[in-house]
Amino acid sequence: MEKVVRMMARLSEAYREIWATARWDVEVEAGSPKISRGENYQGLPWVMLDYPRVFGRGDVLAIRTMFWWGNAFILTLHLKGRYREFFLPALERDWAGLAGMGFHVGIADDEWRHEHAQETYSPLTGAKDLATGLPFLKLSAALTVDRWEESMEILSAWFAAMARTLASCPAGERGLSPGSSTAGSDL
C-alpha cells in the first residue's frame, strides 16, 4: 500500500497544479490535499486522496481519488448544497465530454458509497441524468487496477477535465457567497 500512498502524493501535486491553472471566474478555495487509508471498505484495504476538499454542514465540493485494493481506481466529483447549485449548469453543458471519458452519475441514496455497481452509478447519457432528485451530485469514473501503468495519466486527465468543466461556470449573478463550508475540514 505504500506504493499507492506515494502515487497519491504525486497525484496530489499534479492535481494542485491543474487546479491552480484552471481559469476560474470565481474564487474557489480548494483546501489542502489529504491522503487517507483504511483496511475495510467492503472488506478490502483502500487509499484515498481528497482534493479539492471543502466539507461543510450542508455544502460539499470534493474530488476524491480512491484506490480500492483488487478492484479499481475511482475518481469522484462530490457536490452538495451551494456547490451543487453553482456548478450544475457547467456540468449540464459539458455532460457529453464527461460521459465520453467514462463518467457515471451517482444514484445511491448513500453519498459515501464509492464502488461502481448497478445500484450506485448509472451511465451518463444526457444532462437530464444529473437531476437525480438527491440532495448531492456525484460523477465518477473507474479504472481497473490492471491498468496501473497508465493510471497516473488517466486519473490526471479525468481530474483536468473535471477542473476545466467546473472552472467554466461563470460567476454571474449567483456567485459563491461566503457560507458555512470549511475548506479542508475532515468530515
Summarize the structure.
The radius of gyration is 15 Å and the shape is globular. The model is unreliable at 177-187 (pLDDT under 50).
How far is it from the N-terminal to the C-terminal residue, by CA?
23 Å
The radius of gyration over CA amounts to 15 Å
Structural class comes to alpha+beta
Q: Any idea what the shape is?
A: globular
Chain-averaged pLDDT: 88
The percent range for helix content is: 25-40%
Order of helices and strands: HEEEEHHEEEHE
The level 1 CATH classification is: Alpha Beta
Please state the second-level CATH architecture. 2-Layer Sandwich
Work out the strand percent: 25-35%
| CATH structural fold name | BirA Bifunctional Protein, domain 2
Please give the largest β-sheet. Answer: 8 strands, antiparallel
Oligomeric state: single chain
Q: Which regions have little confidence, pLDDT < 50, spanning 5+ residues?
A: 177-187
- The total strand number stands at 8
Work out the helix count.
4
Integer count of domains? 1
Walk me through this protein's architecture.
The chain has 187 residues and is α+β, with helices and mostly antiparallel strands. It is built from 4 helices and 8 strands, in the order H-E-E-E-E-H-H-E-E-E-H-E. Strands 1, 2, 3, 4, 5, 6, 7 and 8 form an 8-stranded antiparallel beta sheet that branches. It is globular. The chain has a single domain, classed as BirA Bifunctional Protein, domain 2 (2-Layer Sandwich). The model is unreliable at 177-187 (pLDDT under 50). The relative contact order is 0.22.
